[in-house]
Structure formats: C-alpha cells, structure tokens
Amino acid sequence: MDFLKLPILERLQSAQTILLAGAGGGYDIFAGLPLYFALKAQGKTVHLANLSFSSIYASNGKRIGEVNEHVVRVTHETQPELSYFPELYLAQWFWEKRREKVPIYCFDRTGPRPLTAMYQHLVRHLGGVDALVLVDGGTDSLMRGDEPKLGTPEEDLASLLAADALQGVGSKSLVCLGFGIDVFHGVCHHYFLEAVAELTEKNAYLGCWSLLPHLPEVKAFSAAYDYTRKHMQSSIVNSSILAAIEGKFGNWHETTRTEGSELYINPLMGLYWAFDLPAVVERHLFIRELAEHDEWIDLARAIFQRHLNLEKREWKHLPM
C-alpha cells in the first residue's frame, strides 16, 4: 500500500457503485456528503440512503420492497413537505442549487430484521453495489456495550446489523465524523480511542483524515446543511462539525439547541475515522442478540436492559 494513500480510499478505489448510508437517523447522511462529492468527482456511481426520523410513509415517495419493509425514494418533487424531513430538503438543495436529480433512499426507523430486508431490497433495486459505507455523525457507533453510557445506540446498532447481514456487497465500511460531539449524550471518548486501538490491532482501522474548509467537497456539505436548516430544525452534530471545520474553538454555540450546556468545539471534530464494518460488529458485546427484533421500541428496550445488567467500566478522562 502506498504511504500517501489511506486504506479506506484504497478500498473504495476498486468500487464503481457505492451505497453511502446514514446510520443514526436524521441528519446523519449529511456527514457523508464530503465523501459523496469526492467519490462522484472520481466518476463513481454513488447512491445516498438514510435511516429516517421523518414520517416517510406520509409522503408520496416511491415505495421499494415488500409490505412493512418499504424503502421510500425521496426526490425534490416528493410531497408533502413535513416539519422534519432533512432528506427531502437535501434532495431539493441538489435540484435548486446544482440542477441535479439526486434521490435519497429512506429507511423507516425500525428493528434490525426488517431494516436488513430494506437494505436488501434497495441493493436489488439499484442493480447491486460494490461497496457500502455506513456513516455515523458522531462516534458512539464504536461503543462495545459496557461503557458508562452508550450515547444513542438504537439506530446505530440496527444499521450495523443490517449492513453486516447484507448479501452481495463487496466491502462494508463504517465512517465516523465528529469526535467529541457525543459527550453531549454522555459518551466517554476514552473508550472510542480504545476501540480505535483494538481495531488497529485487528487491521480493521482504515485511516483518518481531515475535512478542510477550502475543499469544494466541504463547501458543498456546508451549503447543503445551511439550506436545510433554514427549512427545519438544525442539527447539533452537523452544526458542531462545521463550526470546528471553520476554526471555531471551545464553548462555541452554532445553534440555540445547545444553549445552557458547555461545548468543546475543537479540530478533532472535523476528522473522518474509517473502519471495517464487520470487525466493528464483531467487537460489540451483545449486538448479535438484537438481530431478531422487528420493532424499534423492542430494540431500545433490549439495549437498555442488556446495558443495565452489564458491569459497566468506569468513566475515564482523557489525560491530556
């Protein structure tokens, strides 16, 4: 491998058709936009998907798949416009600002078993994909299950299970953006760094690189996010990431949603961290036990109960 090339980029170099999917719901797909624009610039076919917090079945987006396992294809023409629909506004931004018809494929927030079927339906509909990249806005997807707090694990674990079970895909990667953001949800980042070290030992850490404000891919990411937050509620994660990329530091509040809390905006928030997805799943202590859940609420209860009964490791401050 060339010293000047990251393993994740080497992995994607051989893929021509790539599915880029937001793991944690809501705005997560936005964290994948810089990678989307970079891959498109290389002439690759890149499809965007997202586990959605929106009422996607209330829209007229095209249904793909079986009953109760629908993927909804959202475009700039999708109606109605809901109060919370980041995928729709992203599609509208692509059309209004770039004259590009870019559909966003939305998965309903559900349990791992139907979500796996949704992924399989989508891959079949797309005619197959060479690589899947799951994107996490934040880094709590690297928690193994016995940390003091897990952040918001339900959507991440469902997405990891679905992606891991997906058939007919050449490579599966997890990319995280936003180191330090999840402290807002009680995550101890000592354990994220420990996870990176353990995955490094298994040759499953695929590299880390910076998003810089002058890059066209980053400028497009910022523009898409600014357009969307003018139409609906802003994203704490993406607001923090972009503030960090732009050079803000410390207790900087880009959105009123964080007022009353103390933030630590810093340059590490603008780093992409990449991992082999099956290795991340394999490292988790109880994720396999969750695979048969159909409903999101049942998944949430199972995670809560399993975490409650585990002996938790103590909080550790970063010694620096």
UniProtKB/TrEMBL annotation:
Q: Which Pfam families match?
A: DUF1152
By what name is this protein known? Answer: DUF1152 domain-containing protein
